[in-house]
Amino acid sequence: MTFRNLRKSARTAAVTLAAAMAATAFTVPAQASPITGHGATGHEATRRAIDAEVRAGIPGITAQVRDARGVWRATSGVGDRTSGAPRGENDRYRVGSITKTFVATVLLQLEAEGRLDLDDTVEHHLPGLVRGNGNDGNRITVRHLLSHTSGLFDYLADEEYVATYLRGEGYLKHRYDTLPPLKHVKVALSHPPLFTPGKEFSYSNTNYILAGLILEKAGKRSYEAQVRERIIKPLGLRATTNPGNSIRIPQPSSRAYSKLFDAQPDRIDDVTEMNGSQGWADGDIISTNGDLNRFYRALMHGRLLPPQQLKAMKTTGPSTGRAGMEYGLGLMKIRTSCGTTLWGHGGGMVGSTSLAVTTEDGRHQLAYNRNGDWNTGAPNAIAEAEFCPPKAQRSH
């Protein structure tokens, strides 16, 4: 997910952040509950924006802000539509494409250690893998993968894959299947490239499947182990995990909901359980608002990357058709309506949409999660409210 239209996300069928959708009758409707928050002064507009999302139909939202006033937490709505239990301030959730910043960080660490170069070709690290239908790993570099300029087709835009794993009865039937990374690559390579590598931008989850495979080859350890040893443990991200093949989200957590059936737009399914391998290096991490804020703050402060690599990560190009957003290497640069520049990433999974952003100095951060993956018509509202509040609120 990006700071843009949720229907343009990259963790679903037509690369939609408003992912899949499903079914079942629940005894308790998704209704707004009072927003709770600590240190609320200065965040009134953010509270209203969160509550408005719930009134518009999202089951629940959990958010955390870190700024000069301290830490502010807020929840609204329900975490369980059946029991009516509220969302929790410390809920764990599937962060979706926010995972990409973790992957890019590890690859850039490996570059700093001399284990790879951003201009190495995919063929160099994964010989013979990217071939066929005009795809050529000799022409695609690690930099192209991390910046989404490879031209590789997004496997999540493949119609058969979408029907089987992301929508309707297909999702309900296959949600527990283990899907190895090479299956995703095979789906992508059944399509010709979208353009010559390096010539354009097109967000493709296939890029980060390949980045994860290169990470394992160059680092000589699993993707999960390297993320854990290089980022999670050093930063003390105790609520952040890679699920592997597990179908569950560790507690505390809320249920996740989706609308899987286009022909039944009012039908909402509980999609909390799904095999974590269906995301892998392009979107499998489970975390919390607090851990994501800590991660991006550490990243911006240079605690994870040397200056040269952090500069490379923040070197952006325009993202076609996405006003106010540019993409670096696993990192988005977002311009708000009031001119504030933010760095971070959005993420969408079936049943979950999230955003984690920070000012460049790390002094003002926002992370939030919606436990519903559909579009309410105002995807930018929460971040806009936090970073572009009314003048009366800014004076506090």
Summarize the structure.
With 396 residues, the protein is of the alpha+beta class.
What would you say this structure looks like, in words?
The chain is α+β, with helices and mostly antiparallel strands and 396 residues long. It has a single domain (6-394), classed as DD-peptidase/beta-lactamase superfamily (Beta-lactamase, 3-Layer(aba) Sandwich), CATH 3.40.710.10. The chain contains 13 helices and 15 strands. The chain has a 9-stranded antiparallel β-sheet with strand order 1-3-2-15-14-13-12-11-10, sandwiched between helices. Strands 4-9 form a two-stranded antiparallel sheet. It is globular, with a radius of gyration of 20 Å. Mean pLDDT is 89; it is low at 1-35. Residues 48-360 form the Beta-lactamase-related domain. InterPro entries: AmpC-like (IPR050491), Beta-lactam-related (IPR001466), Beta-lactam/transpept-like (IPR012338). This is D-alanyl-D-alanine carboxypeptidase.
